[in-house]
Amino acid sequence: MAAMLRIVNGRVYDPANGMDGVVRDVCVEDGRIVADVPPEARKIDAGGMVVMPGGVDIHCHIAGSKVNLARKLQPEDHRRDPHLRTRFTRSGTGGTVPSTFATGYRYAALGYTAAMEAAVTPLGARHTLEELQDTPVIDKGFFILVGNNVLLYRLLQEGRHEEFRHTLAWWLSATKSYAPKLVNPGSDELWKGGRNANITRLDEKIGPFDLTPRKVISAFIGAANDLGLPHPVHIHCNNLGHTGNYETTLETMRIAEGRRAHITHIQFHSYGSVAGKSGDNPTSKAREIAEFVNTHPNISADVGAVMFGRSTSMTADAPLAYMLRRFGGGKWVNADTEHESGCGILPFTYQDHIYTNALQWAIGLELFLLSEDPWRMVFSTDHPNGGSFMSYPKLIRLLMDREFRKEEMAKVNQAALENSGLRDCQGREYSLYEIAIITRAGPARLLGLTSKGHLGVGADADITIYEENADKELMFSTPRYVLKDGELIIEDHEFRADHEGRVLHVAPDYDPAIEQVIQPFFEAFYTIQFANYPVDASYLHHHQVIPTTAQMAATGSPAGS
Amino acid sequence: MSDENIRIVPDATCTFCGCVCDDMVLTVDVQQHKITKSQNACVLGKAWFKEHGIEDRPFALIGGREATTEEGIEEAAQILARARFPIIYGLSDTTCEAQRVAVAIADMIGGNIDTTTSVCHGPTGIAFQGLGESTATLGEIKNRADLIIFWGGNPAEAHPRLFARYAVTPKGMYIPNGRKDRTIVLVDVRRTASTPVADIFLQVKPRSDFEVLWALRALVKGHKVDPSIEQRTGIALAVLEDLVARMKSCRFGAFLFGMGLTMNRGRHFNAGALLALATDLNEFTHFVAAPVRGHGNVTGADNVVSWQTGYPFGVNFSRGFPRFGPGEFTTVDVLARGDADAAMIIASDPASNFPQPAIDHLKRIPVITLDPKTSVTSQLARVAFTTATYGINVAGTAYRMDNVPITLRPAFASPYPSDEQILRGIRDRVRVLLGGNRMPVDTSAAAAAL
Amino acid sequence: MAEMMTLIGGRSSKQGTALCAGKLGPEYLDVSSMVEMNAEDMARLGLRNDSKVRLRTPVGEAILRCKSRETKDLPRGILFMAYGPLSSQLMAGDTAGSGMPLSKNLEVEVEPVRD
Which domain holds residue A377? Predict the structure, then answer.
């Protein structure tokens, strides 16, 4: 496809290349950004419009067995929100957990061209890859849950650090995944084997293991950094949602000790405590958390903002989901995966008059507004936990438009607002440049995707063109054009073509002899044959391996080229 | 017989039932296209492997006349494109890759898609939508469960290795003594081959499972239950109280339940009562419930239809988007009411176990079948394709009853096409006939303008 | 001389192996045309192993051969048969809006067939 295109007259926001609304041409050939194209190339007149790289969602839940359980769970959510087929695109259903085709098309319709599924059990990697193949347009990858992995725990407690590292590399390669994910490390064994207990302190012994969450977190941070992975360990800290949990978060970030680590949906981990009438109430510690991230360049985070309305809580943090159930009392799913992870799911609605929900909403905004480095405090709602990805345009408006934010603040529980610091940072407004950083350039850089999130020569031609509008929610809801790999997917707000995106994955090197360590564990304890466990290449259609730093050095070529 | 003629296929998967055991070691006589030995297979698996060779049959039959696959595809595409209420059914004995194409066809033609789930654990799916469930992969049960309750099923005859490989006898990480570390309870209306395996057998009166489960829920929550429960259900109050004590005090409990609950008076209420009981028990200890699935890839069908449409079965696309309707779009109903005017039955034989009114209607409409063997349904079909057998000739993905996806390792090749190949052919031809996906309101001018 | 009893349809090991050989084969037809009946009920109705009985529901009827079971295994008033073409003839199409027809605990009229 040597399709050539020139986008003219648009205001280009390309923070990775320092462009802040410059009117300049963007040229596309053969799926890439190029310096120039011949005069006969098709022109797109983007006059009065804003040109950005396609959006990159660093953390969402869109594909795999946990997502599919949540999908099956809520027919009422789908009935409200049909997704009609067209002559050439598939039908589906929406709600907070859309069907796969609807997910891909709707992300594209918001101008997103890449997304990372944030939590997959290695045993279920095949399932995620099948669903991702049925998720059109966007490029995608997934993080595998390793933070409660029984074999890795055994190696760690025996001090077998080298083998731990090789085993982690094996697991990433075997599952065709993108990054290692930790969720409430240490909790799984207590939940499954301890009659639904949970872990609460970083220095607490993890059941039968001679380990603590601190040791586990540090080991994974170290191994991921030693492996030179494009994205470091992605951490869902202990004590999510608990009053006073900000100390756990600060302590977890300190464990990194200068090494790269990513704290996900950090809003849910930013709560202080104040004595109330019947127990302690949460308050905002966004200032403390933001300050730590601001002053520690090795730490990155995505906010995990809460948006009012329906959501679905779906998490590998099974004890958390069970706790949340007590607030709603409705349907609840628990699904254990042998030796690897837990899972909890329940529908949840955030309401502006409820103290905790309003506080969460305020903290999310605070974290954005207090951030001094948008490259390291990036955009997310932990879709669909904090809110659906369909609410992204509204969140963008809240960040860019302080009048609108003020109106919204007037509607929420005022006591919650008092216990947050939102009024103090209310003055700030995000610029388009900063939005381009937190929704595109920043996530791409944090993920190590050097050919995404920017419009420099050589980048993937994933481009979104929005019509300028004072109402930023409207502006970001419906791009005029979306290009994926240089192909016009959306033109004049309508779908023109279907498209299959790529699976992005890592293949870190490991010593093949490590299989002699792994196999006996499988034979003794798993219920699937060792030979059948790794995912074979037949599940990868369009795909791209993103190299580790060692692999880059060996070939001398940058990642993603 | 030379050595070159014998091939050993280790780590192969048996897809006869929902256990989807992937530790088969198959001995293949390559020349004869036969599996002569299937080590680790249970009696059902052995029959599965033994009986699926290559039969000398036409590639397709159209109106009873021999035809090529291509001719069959043309005829099938014409039937589906012309129909006003086409239905697709079955799918539980084929790969996920084929299932995905089947849903694509249903979407394209605005038809109905349903799987054997609707007559198996469909009610469990309906209960799940209302309550959720606490569940686990089979490896959790093998390694941790010290109390296992089988309800409304006869694994000894329908899922033999559920006992041997997953739930009763195997040693586990926290179950070092295997069987001795477990208490096995069985609940059924009659004694079966499974009964001797149990430590405790509860013989309930027919049609009283719901009352027993509800009484157990009440006892778990600390309410009083009247001793007249024995008259109603056949189970004494003392027995129920003992069971509740065991359930609350175990370390990791598991229900494994079957058709005795779903195919009975109460259907999804029965399944819901059991799921709710398992959920309630999590106040006291870790407890899970897992439905025992019949066919090899019915779980895959549930997953595929769910991820592509949002709903697990009984889905209709006639208005341009998926609509879910048990009782309305489930196949027994659609056929019994006489709504369907064409049917494609994939890897299933409804004419041999559906209610008679549904079978009668199948005889009245054009039917397309895809099956490796002649079946009651293929005999009444307008177009009957002979296909290769999944897991034996065809690679692809199947999901075990606990949602674990497993890649199949075929033993030997077949001259016949796979379900996926045929369905792709049909899909491509229908796309040409309809000019793309069928739009619910056929505004020809708008279509022509595109 | 007809009596009402409860019929349970289900799977059996023989039915499972037989269907692999083929649903039109003699083995499958054989296993799915047999009904298990309580020994005391059989005695009262004057039936022996392999005697023919007619089972009738509002939808249809089927003739099967019976096989005796002890009361401790199969209580009085209950019948068991493996799924197959004959069980279909007895099943109604009404699913009570659930999609699932009833194939267990069907009320059937049982009558010995005199040759």
Answer: 52-495
Q: Residue A364's domain is classified under what CATH number?
A: 3.20.20
Residues 6 or more apart whose CB falls under 8 angstroms from that of A208 comprise: A189, A193
DSSP B62-109: ETTEEE-HHHHHHHHHHHHHH-SSEEEEE-TTS-HHHHHHHHHHHHHH
Closest by CA to C9, choosing from B101, B186, B258, is B258
What single-letter DSSP state applies at residue A439?
A: I
Residue to test with chain A: of B115, B121, B268, B404, most A Cβ within 10 A: B404
Residues A490-536: pLDDT tens digits?
999 999 999 999 999 999 999 999 999 999 999 999 999 999 999 99
List residues bridging with C82 in a β-sheet: C10
Query: What CATH number has the domain spanning B57-120+296-441?
Result: 3.40.50.740
Polymer length in residues for chain A: 561
Size of interface A-B (CB pairs under 8 A): 202
A179-183 and A234-236 strand pairing:
parallel
Q: Taking a contact as any Cβ pair under 8 Å apart, which residues of chain A between 493 and 552 contact chain B?
A: 524-529, 531-532, 535-536, 538
**A486, A31 contact by CB (below 8 A):** yes
Residue A349 above 60 pLDDT? yes
Residues of B in contact with C5 (CB under 8 A): none
**Alpha helices in A236-377, H assignment, sequence order:** 246-255, 286-295, 318-328, 355-370
Amino acid, res. A18: G
Question: ipTM surpassing 0.90, yes or no?
Answer: yes
Q: What is the residue whose two structure tokens read 């009166």?
A: B205
Q: With contacts defined as CB-CB under 8 Å, which chain B residues touch C23?
A: 349, 352, 373, 375-376
The string over B324-362, giving b where at least 16 C-beta atoms fall within 10 Å of a residue's C-beta and e elsewhere, is bbbbbbbbbbbbbeebbbbbbbbbbbbbbbbbbbbbebb
Whether residue A437 lies inside any domain: the answer is yes
In a domain, A268, yes or no: yes
Where in chain B are the domains?
A: 6-50, 57-120+296-441, 122-291
Domain B122-291 adopts which CATH fold?
Dimethylsulfoxide Reductase; domain 2 (3.40.228)
Collapsing DSSP to helix, strand or coil, B251 comes out as coil
Residue A502: inside a domain? no
Decide if B57-120+296-441 and B122-291 have a common fold: no
pTM for this entry: 0.96
A111 occurs within a structural domain: yes
- Structure tokens, A529: 């044959």
Strand partners, A275: A280
Candidates B330, B329, B391; CA nearest to B97 is B391
β-pairing verdict for B86-90 and B342-346: parallel
Sign of the torsion formed by the C-alpha atoms of A136, A456, A507 and A172: negative
